[in-house]
Please model this.
Amino acid sequence: MMAKPKVKEEFLKNHEEFNAFVNKLPQNGPNVYFLFSGSKKENGRSWCIYCQMAEPVIKAFLDELKRNVVFAYVDVGDRDYWKDRACPFRTDSRTKLLVIPTIIKWKGVQRLEGSQCTKRDLLQMLFEEDD
Model:
């Protein structure tokens, strides 16, 4: 019996963890997606209101996704760290983040930014198989 396709979730706390994770990715593994959002406060919610709005939509979408993919949640840090123009997530040529939340497909050009991350139809398009 074939195993059911499923989403493997990863949680990365900062740019160092993001870097280490990316450097260990296999050449021909499953598609990898990254959600970049503001770090969580003590109450378990991101300081970024748009990240708070996007998270339940994304989680519900992933729960229904029947695909073998890796989905990594990446904290970009607290507000002051993120707002700094020198923030590594902004300057890293692989991410070049302008806003959070942002979802990128690794080794792809597609990305969803800001309120796009709350739209199921756009999530669907981002996760479509590359036939």
Summary: The CA atoms of residues 13 and 102 lie 15 Å apart. The first strand starts at residue 7 and ends at 12.
